Amino acid sequence: MRKSIRKLTVAIAVAATMSALSATAVSAARISNPVAVFAGIDKITGRITTFDVYIDETVQYGALQVTPKVCYSRDETEAQRVDGFVEVDEITLDRKIRRIFTGWMFADSPGLNAVEHAIYDVWLTGCKQQSDVPAPEATN
39, 64, 116, 122: which sits with the fewest CB atoms below 10 Å from its CB? Predict the structure, then answer.
C-alpha cells in the first residue's frame, strides 16, 4: 500500500513539473518579424556591411542574392533566440543563378550556418518589426 501511495505521489509531482514546464514554453512563443537583419563581409576589401531584408524579398550582396523566408525572435522578457530560414543564391561568372544555401540561420551561433563563399560571407544577426529601408511595393 505504501509503495502505491509513493508511486502516486511521484506521478503527481512529475505531472505538476511537466505542467509548469509546458506553461513556461508557451510564454516563450516565437514572434514572427517582417524584417531580417544580416551582416556580410567582403573578404577582398575586409568591409563588413549590415543590411535589412524584408521577408520573401531578395537583396543582392556582391555576387549573392539573400532571401529570408521567416525571421523569429522572442518576447523582450525572454532570452533572445533569433533564427531565420534563408535561401542564398550565387550569381556565377557566366550569369547563372545557383543555390548555395537553404536552411536555418541562428544569430546566437553565426558560425553554425553562415554562408561561406569564396569572396562573400553572410550571416543572420537579428530580426526587426520595422526598417529604415522602404518596404517593397505590394504586387497585385
Answer: 116
Residue with cell 516563450: 28
pLDDT in tens, 74-108: 987 777 789 999 999 999 999 999 999 999 999 98
Instruction: Retrieve residue 73's grid coordinates.
Output: 525572435
DSSP 90-125: EE-TTS-EEEEEEEEEETT-HHHH-EE-SSEEEEEE
Degrees to nearest 5, angle at CA 110 with 113 and 87:
40
Grid coordinates representing 100 are: 548555395
CA distance 39 to 51: 6
Inform me whether the pLDDT recorded for 64 exceeds 60. yes
Q: Which residue matches cell numbers 554562408? A: 115
Write down the residue that cell numbers 510564454 correspond to: 27
**Cβ distance 17 to 28 under 8 Å?**
no
